[in-house]
Specification:
Radius of gyration: 16 Å
Distance between the termini: 24 Å
Mean pLDDT: 92
Strand content: 5-15%
CATH architecture: Orthogonal Bundle
Order of helices and strands: HHEHHEEHH
Helix content: 55-70%
Number of strands: 3
Number of domains: 1
CATH topology: Arc Repressor Mutant, subunit A
C-alpha cells in the first residue's frame, strides 16, 4: 500500500509520500511550523534522513527553516505558501488512495475493530 500511495502522489503531484507526510505534519499545526525534533518524532524517518528531506524541501521552496528563540540549538520547519498549496493539492489524492487501497478492503466489523484498536492506543482517535 505504501508503494502504491507513493507512486500515486509522485505521478499526480511530483511529491513522494515521505515528503507529503512531512508537509502534512507541518501544515496540520496551528501556525504552519513545527520544531525539527517534534517532526522527527512524528514521521518514520531517522533524524539524518529527516534532515536530508528537509534540506530538499527547502531547496524546492516548500519549507523554510527558522531559529527557535527559546532554544539556540533548536529550529523550526516552516511551511511556505508553495508548500501549503502543494500539500493541499496532494491531500485529496492521498486520502482517496488510503480509502481505496486500505479502508475499502475492510468490512464494517473490521472497521469497528480497527477503530477500537486505535481508541486503545490513542484515546480519542476514533472520534
Amino acid at each position: 500500500m505504501v508503494k502504491t500511495l507513493d507512486a500515486e502522489l509522485e505521478a499526480a503531484h511530483d511529491l513522494p509520500l515521505s515528503s507529503y507526510e512531512v508537509l502534512r505534519a507541518v501544515a496540520d499545526t496551528s501556525d504552519g511550523r513545527m520544531r525539527m525534533c517534534d517532526l522527527a518524532d512524528h514521521v518514520l524517518l531517522s533524524r539524518s534522513g529527516l534532515t536530508r528531506l528537509i534540506d530538499r524541501l527547502v531547496r524546492e521552496g516548500l519549507l523554510c527553516r527558522a531559529r527557535c528563540s527559546s532554544d539556540a540549538r533548536g529550529s523550526f520547519a516552516c511551511l511556505t505558501v508553495a508548500g501549503r498549496e502543494k500539500v493541499e493539492a496532494a491531500r485529496g489524492t492521498h486520502l482517496t488512495g488510503v480509502r481505496e487501497h486500505f479502508l475499502a478492503q475492510l468490512d464494517e466489523a473490521d472497521l469497528e475493530r480497527l477503530a477500537a484498536a486505535w481508541e486503545r492506543v490513542l484515546p480519542g482517535a476514533s472520534s
